[in-house]
């Protein structure tokens, strides 16, 4: 025998409120007092009530879905899982679910946008991996679709005209470099990514800034190497820098730092604070990924609930230096 379906009226009777109040708690909780919200939530849990998403979509015109791309890994290292977990958790608290998709480049990602909009009608997108000449944002903006980027719109003046949340890579590498300067190092090398990487150039700029502020003479342009981001190239670059006189190294990522550690007994600092960094004792910069996820969801809910915010949200968070045995 099929169990009897629990309705919104059942929840209302259990919580001793009206059906409209239950609906408000489920759809617009800010309209209801906290005490009443808790009573309704308790009734929902006790009765095992499940919201009919199809009916909600017909009623509100919203799917309560947020779409985000799965990022690729390099050398088995990926910090995106922490961001994704935080995004899923934050979205659920706000009454949304996250759907995942994959794409190889901008063109295939835009094609995926089109497919998702046809099949699932997500309310908004969270874009990651921003870069110079990023056409994904203009495609979404031209169609009036809600989105936030985890990453700045590189190359756009005054932070761009769409909402974003990002981590201040320059502040992070500047802190790492000053840590090494305080330890007495003056010839501090930097191993980065190819020129033109928004994130990579940002992280490099913090190293340059710290040397300019505190070092006896800047090593920018002398004690630096650019790599494809792999551990193998990180090791080769570190050997060259040590041979050129570097006594300590700041790296653009943990993957690069993992290779640099193999080059010689000099202090090495990475970026991203991956589980590998913690396992091997690598000093690294930790991104506040859970906070970034919370802020992304907050930006989107603001966009979805207020069609005309005064200006787009621009949120820049600071990473923290986690000191371990390598520095």
What report would you give on this structure?
There is one protein chain. This protein is 45% helix and 16% strand. The chain is of the alpha/beta class and 327 residues long. It folds into three domains: 8-51, lambda repressor-like DNA-binding domains (434 Repressor (Amino-terminal Domain)), CATH 1.10.260; 65-167 and 288-317, Response regulator (Rossmann fold), CATH 3.40.50.2300; 169-286, Rossmann fold (3-Layer(aba) Sandwich), CATH 3.40.50. The chain has a six-stranded parallel sheet, sandwiched between helices. A six-stranded mixed sheet has the order 7-6-8-9-10-12, with helices on both faces. α1 crosses α2 (19-27), α1 (8-15) packs across α3 (34-47) and α10 (231-243) crosses α11 (254-260). The longest helix is centred in the middle third of the chain and has 17 residues, at 198-214.
């Amino acid at each position: 025998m099929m169990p009897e379906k629990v309705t919104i009226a059942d929840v209302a009777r259990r919580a001793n409120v009206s059906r409209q109040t239950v609906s408000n708690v489920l759809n617009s909780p800010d309209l209801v007092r906290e005490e009443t919200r808790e009573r309704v939530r308790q009734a929902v849990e006790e009765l095992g009530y499940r919201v009919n998403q199809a009916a909600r979509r017909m009623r509100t015109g919203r799917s309560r879905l947020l779409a985000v791309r799965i990022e690729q890994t390099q050398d088995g290292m990926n910090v995106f899982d922490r961001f994704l977990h935080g995004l899923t958790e934050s979205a659920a608290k706000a009454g949304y679910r996250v759907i995942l998709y994959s794409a190889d480049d901008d063109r295939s990602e835009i094609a995926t946008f089109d497919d998702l909009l046809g099949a699932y009608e997500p309310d908004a997108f969270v874009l990651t991996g921003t870069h110079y000449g990023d056409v994904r944002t203009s495609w979404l903006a031209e169609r009036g679709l809600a989105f936030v980027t985890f990453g700045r719109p590189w190359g756009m003046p005054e932070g761009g005209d769409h909402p974003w949340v990002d981590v201040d890579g320059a502040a992070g590498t500047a802190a790492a470099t000053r840590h090494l300067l305080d330890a007495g190092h003056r010839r501090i090398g930097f191993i980065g990514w190819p020129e033109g990487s928004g994130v990579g150039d940002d992280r490099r700029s913090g190293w340059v800034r710290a040397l300019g502020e505190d070092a006896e003479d800047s090593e920018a342009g002398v004690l630096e190497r650019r790599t494809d981001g792999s551990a193998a190239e990180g090791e080769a670059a570190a050997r060259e820098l040590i041979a050129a006189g570097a006594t300590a190294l700041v790296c653009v990522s943990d993957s690069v730092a993992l290779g640099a550690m193999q080059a010689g007994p000099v202090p090495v600092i990475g970026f991203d604070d991956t589980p590998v960094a913690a396992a091997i004792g690598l000093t690294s910069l930790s991104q506040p990924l859970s906070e970034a996820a919370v802020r992304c969801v907050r930006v989107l809910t603001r966009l979805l609930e207020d069609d005309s915010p005064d200006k787009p949200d621009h949120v820049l968070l600071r990473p923290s230096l986690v000191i371990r045995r390598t520095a």
